[in-house]
Specification:
The chain is an alpha/beta fold. The protein has twelve helices and eight strands. The chain has an eight-stranded mixed beta sheet. This is DNA adenine methylase.
């Protein structure tokens, strides 16, 4: 369960769960889901999904994001990777280019999926913490300690995109409301599948995501999950409202670091669907709260 692996996703993401992959793998193993399908209705950076695919834990992955810019990024690198890589190679990393890409993402209907997806990628790599509606690294005057190119190593990012493209036939990309997707999940993923939901944070979502949720939105997710017969788990920021919404399900508080998932009086909470078996304590390197 230990080990800080190299990032697999080209995106930086607030609350990214790439370090969560060892725990998800243990869930897949103890529920005998290896080689099945894996769905993330709130994919974002999709770090876990890529890890499962590249390491043969999941035969096919389904990644969904309601944000048209993030969806366009995944659609572009899965379906038009050569054109995307050409853009990556030819586009300068400058403040003038940042303003240009900002205009594209603010007028999505005026641009192609490729252009919008690249704009999302460009801003993700050049904005503070990867937040699309955030400010540029180093400020617009570029007088900060770090410049906007600080998180933009073209060679490394191109290598990640090429690896994803090599698995394109195993990756399915969607741009749907998560509740709508969950409601029809039995139509496109088999029984030996795992659904992992990492919805926008309850308390801080509005500051981090372009698509943040109201209380009723969170309730709708819980109600949709109650109606399906696939195995699912959900992670959230730990707060009384979420604990109440999911009160009939098993819950663990945890702290997530790069080396392990540890049960504790932590900042986040894991909720288990009714048919999901939990990995044994020794697999998780956990301790009691």
């Amino acid at each position: 369960m230990a080990g800080h692996s190299k990032p697999l996703t080209p995106l930086r993401y607030p609350g990214g769960k790439g370090a969560f992959a060892p725990f998800i793998k243990s869930i897949i193993e103890c529920n005998k889901l290896k080689g099945g399908h894996y769905l993330e209705p709130f994919a974002g950076g999709a770090g876990v999904a890529l890890d499962l695919l590249f390491n043969d834990y999941s035969q096919e992955i389904h990644i969904n994001d309601l944000d048209p810019a993030i969806y366009s990024f995944w659609h572009a690198i899965v379906n038009t990777s050569k054109d995307f890589l050409d853009l990556l190679s030819s586009t300068p990393i400058s403040i003038n280019e940042w303003h240009k890409q900002k205009q594209i993402i603010n007028a999505p209907h005026c641009h192609s999926t490729l252009e919008l997806g690249f704009a999302a990628f460009f801003l993700n790599r050049t904005n503070r913490s990867g937040i699309l509606k955030g400010g540029v690294i180093g400020g617009k005057k570029q007088d900060g300690i770090y410049k906007l190119c600080a998180r933009f190593n073209k060679e490394k990012l191109a290598a990640r995109i090429r690896k994803i493209s090599a698995h394109a036939s195993q990756i399915h990309v969607y741009n749907q409301n998560a509740v709508d997707l969950i409601n029809k999940v039995t139509d496109f993923i088999p029984e030996n599948s795992l659904i992992y939901l990492d919805p926008p944070y309850y308390n801080k979502g509005q500051g981090l995501y372009r698509n943040f949720y109201t209380h009723d939105d969170h309730v709708s997710i819980c109600r949709a999950l109650a109606k399906i017969d696939r195995k699912w788990i959900v992670s959230y920021d730990s707060c009384i409202q979420i604990k109440d919404i999911y009160s009939i399900y098993r819950q663990d508080e945890y702290a997530l670091s790069y080396c392990a998932y540890k049960k504790t009086k932590g900042a986040e909470i894991m909720i288990y669907g009714p048919t999901v078996l939990e990995p044994i304590e020794s697999q998780l390197k956990t301790h009691s709260p």
